[in-house]
Amino acid sequence: MTPETISWKDDHVVMIDQRILPHKVNYVVCRSHYDVAKAIKNLVIRGAPAIGCAAAMGMALGALRIKGKGTAIFLKELKKIGGVLVRSRPTAVNLSWAINRMLKLAQENAHQTVEELQQTLVAESLKILAEDIDTNRRMGLNGQSLINDGATILTHCNAGALATGGYGTALGVIRAAVEAGKRVKVIADETRPFLQGSRLTAFELTCDDIPVTLITDNMAGHVMKCGYVDAVIVGADRIAANGDTANKIGTYMVSVLAKEHAIPFYVAAPLSTIDLSIKNGGLIPIEERDQKEVTHLSGKIIAPQQVAALNFAFDVTPAANVTAFITEEGIIRPPYQEAFSSLFNSR
Question: Quick check: is 132 catalytic?
Fold first, then answer.
């Protein structure tokens, strides 16, 4: 069973350190919202839904440590805490979604005392965590209908329990299919440079006794051409109003290969990942990280000294390459702009 990703214990936020998995299981204890922001930025915790849960808990943690009297001062300080957290990573929309939800709740309960507001926010952060796990299970139930018995699924990056509050998005669909009695195999891209596929996805699936085979990122086209892949399922960090989808770097390449080989390409993501304020993928902010993540591996340099490197953390898959979106509310098929609009207007 995959270890717990994030939890609230004794008024602290506890996260499994995903930088050192699978070789060592260690936990990082965050005692302030600054610690949470640092953990998000440094990839102690990663994955859009998990970052959202962490942000909510970071808001609650910061709220508990606000000093001073009066609700007005409290709300002002809480907004500053949100500002610190939202700057930790730019691409995943779940981060700002969770922060805005916490700020809105505090404003709606401005009649409460500071102590009551603090406990209200702690309870809401735990509610967001529980909702995420429930959302992933519902998503899994919806998505498993797309997987045939005996299918082999290719994944990219890690969209499992470690990327969420628990159970997972893309891996949640796979878990649900296995729980339904289907024989499913997984091919996991290693996902350079942080190796989320080899270190995290393979780790999770091994923990759950789900057959998994690891491949290098540049092997995906070959295994598709050879008929090893029946479907591709990935997660998402932000989905634009037209269906363009930002996900871990390399996802776009996989989508192009899947389209070339007529293989279904599914995106599993909660509705909170859909950002209707972003018209298309070209407007999604793409994080660029430290070059050393490319030129170094486990602290050792693997490239010539002083060589320049690009390190885009995400890319954008055009909506035309997505066969369908798997959400907690069901399967969404094109045209996505109309489908998203109708879905959100009906809620």
Answer: no
